[in-house]
Amino acid sequence: MTAASGDRPYKRIATEEAFCPPEMLERYKRLIDEKAVDDIGFNSMWGFYSSSDSARCRFIRDHLTDVGDVRLAHMDAAGVDFAVLALTSPGVQVMKAADATEFAAYANDWVADAIARRPDRFDGLAACAPQDPAAAAKEIERGVSKLGLKGVIINSHTQHQYLDDPKYWAIFEAAEALDVPIYLHPSSPSDGLIKPMLGRGLDGAIWGFSVETGLHALRIIVAGVFDRFPKLQLVLGHVGESLPFTLYRLDYMHQASFASGRYETMPALKRRVSDYMRDNFHYTNSGVAWEPPIRFLQETIGVDRVMYAMDYPYQYKPEEVGELEAMGISAEAKQAFFQDNARRLFKLKV
């Protein structure tokens, strides 16, 4: 046990903790300055975060690139024993295909080196470049088999395109074959979604991220991805991007829509939407340190599929861990939430 774990019979594992090499922030700044990316959300978000001198922006920039003593001190102050690191959004997905493929490999090597220095505190997920699905599949295999990374990070849409398109399914095939999960993490909404949100500042974590990622997850489900890859596991943060709270309606209206024959793009599925959400998804509470939705997920989806995450450094509230320790759930459910589910899903040795 680490010093942070004290007398608890379990460790607290945080499963959605962002990082990036310093070179990626430099590249983002250059892409924005050169107006090289056709993406309203990226240019708005990173145009601000890469240049603002606000305390929040400086904290995020400084701590995304730190996987050493400062991050460890913050983990200790919060009572987090172990972190699963993932390349921050939008990762390489705004870059040109060749550049993205090259930088994904660099980022994976970079985080693997950080993990090797502190394997008692860190593990991580492999980045890839969906722009070139075949190369992405190869990088996933390298990241998992050679570097020892524990899954895949995909930061939602890739230049306004979604993974339900079969041209991307080599990524799903690779993850299923390697028996590792894909963390479907938010990104700024695609251009088709963002404009009404941006006008009132709702495009980011306050709401737009969940709309974007929830849409992406539903597109994957209704496209039949899990009928083609039945063992594939995806992870959704932020208590499931709100989707679990509408399971009844998702089931009813999906069945009604299919029966109506209105959409040629809606194939028959072998199971209900809620079945896939219970059997092919895991969930973290990242950014939502609030007992009611966590308990709802445990009761509705299953105690064995809900995990802890902080969402560092975008959300760092040291006292939240103690607040979640005080949840009125069984000792077994608490241990599953903080430790056991993450250990099993990501095959962690901590």
UniProtKB/TrEMBL annotation:
Keywords: Lyase
Source species, domain of life: Bacteria
Domain Amidohydrolase-related: residue ranges: 66-348
Pfam annotation, one family: Amidohydro_2
Gene3D superfamilies reported for this sequence: Metal-dependent hydrolases
Protein name, as recorded: Amidohydrolase family protein
Source species: Sphingomonas canadensis
